[in-house]
Amino acid sequence: MLKSDAWRSLSGVAVKVFLELHTRFNGSNNGTLRLSYAEAAVLLGVGKATVKRGFEDLQAKGFVVLVRKGNWYHRQAHEWRLTTKPVQKVKGVEVPSHDWRSWSPEKSERGSETERSGGAVVPFQNPSGRDGSISEPVRGKSGGRHGSGTEH
């Protein structure tokens, strides 16, 4: 798992959140792992919005699943399931789903096959001003005072 594209693309806070959830797993409580954004923020030393992004990253890449939404008014945290661990059910054990295995990074176009977007181009000559001055080369002429006199 640690060598997968999904794991290696996780943000730092997502890794911390995953490890915190993993420490709460006791062998039979997967699916009822509780960790609120506020508690995670205090434990990890980051903001609640950052923790929320970490959870979203973990969900998008298939490492955790939100089983039951929490209720702020009743002081109940969300309940999570790790896809890397089995779930204890009344009629036996449900095997891990390993949803992270099906995640793949979006392909980005690179190299010579990408569309050329006409980026910034340095002009060969300075534009002529309104005062009627003549245009001159951008690079100054080598007067022999500095350098070897040849272009690099």
Structure write-up:
The chain is elongated. The relative contact order is 0.14. The longest helix has 13 residues, at 48-60. It is an alpha+beta fold. The chain has a three-stranded antiparallel beta sheet with strand order 1-3-2. Strand 4 and strand 5 (92-94) form a beta hairpin. The mean pLDDT is 81. Helices cover 24% and strands 11% of the residues. Helix 2 (12-23) packs across helix 4 and helix 3 packs across helix 4 (48-60). The protein has helices spanning 5-8, 12-23, 37-44, 48-60, and strands spanning 33-34, 64-68, 79-82, 87-89, 92-94.
DSSP helical segment count: 4
Secondary-structure-based class equals alpha+beta
Oligomer: single chain
What would you report as the Rg, rounded to the nearest angstrom? Answer: 28 Å
Order of helices and strands: HHEHHEEEE
What is the 3D form? Answer: elongated
- Numbering strands along the chain, what is their spatial order in the largest sheet? 1-3-2
Q: Could you give the distance between the termini?
A: 49 Å
Total E-strand runs: 5
Strand content: 5-15%
Largest sheet: 3 strands, antiparallel
How confident is the prediction overall: mean pLDDT?
81
- Residue runs with pLDDT of under 50 for 5 or more positions: none
